[in-house]
Amino acid sequence: MARGYKEMLDEADAQVQSVTTEEMAARLGDDGLVMVDIRDPRELEREGMVPGAFHAPRGMLEFWIDPESPYHKPRFAEGKTYVFYCASGWRSLLAAKLAQEMGLEARSMRGGFKDWHASGKPVAEMPRKS
User: Fold this and answer.
1) Beta strands 54-55 and 33-37: pairing type?
2) Which of 24, 34, 50, 62 has the fewest CB atoms nearer than 10 Å to its CB?
3) Which tens digit of pLDDT belongs to each residue from 76-115?
4) Across the strands, what pairs with 18?
5) CA 49 to CA 121: how far, in whole Å?
6) C-alpha of 33 from chain center
7) Average pLDDT, the chain
8) Alpha-carbon span 86 to 40, nearest angstrom
């Protein structure tokens, strides 16, 4: 029988260390950490993002992380801790599990951008492509 999303989230939650928005706010600007926003570009345009975060659309993660991929992004080869976030934390929990399986030191931010914004933490506009 196929697994549903709840089973997949439970499995990921058992394997991935999660951090709170408070912990992440205290670590903004930490050189050993990369915040990775995996939301759709329309979400970023509409709502903004965590200042200094790197945008990596969820649909491209496997390709951007894998150094053998023609789409590899060097940002994922820096040997840092990668903290993934989405709107509420579900997509980022699954993304962090995937990144961990691909060899990255990965975490997921509980509550996602929704909690970040609701608690009054700083928000930046999505950088425009030139």
Assistant:
1) parallel
2) 62
3) 999 999 999 999 999 999 999 999 999 999 999 999 999 9
4) 108
5) 10
6) 11
7) 94
8) 9
Sequence letter at residue 72: H
Q: Name the token pair of 33.
A: 């950490």
For 37-78, the pLDDT digits (tens) are 999 999 999 999 999 999 999 999 999 999 999 999 999 999
Burial class (CB in 10 A: 0-12, 13-18, 19+), 40: middle
Q: Which residue has the tokens 């030191």?
A: 105
Distant-in-sequence contacts of 21-29, Cβ < 8 A, 24+ apart: 21/109, 21/110, 21/111, 21/115, 21/116, 21/119, 21/121, 22/119, 24/50, 24/83, 24/85, 24/109, 24/116, 25/116, 25/121, 25/122, 28/52, 28/122
